[in-house]
Amino acid sequence: MRRILVSVFCCVCFLCAHASATVLAPIEFRQLVTSSPVIVHGTVVDVRADWVDGRRAVETFVTVEAGDYLKGDLGPRITFKVPGGQMGRYRTVFVGAPTFQTGDELVLFLKSNGPSYPFITGLSQGLFRIVTDRTSGRRLVTPPAVVGKAGVDERVVRGDPSRRPVPLDDFRTLVREMMSSPAQGGER
Question: Tell me, what's the pLDDT at 19?
Answer without folding.
Answer: 47
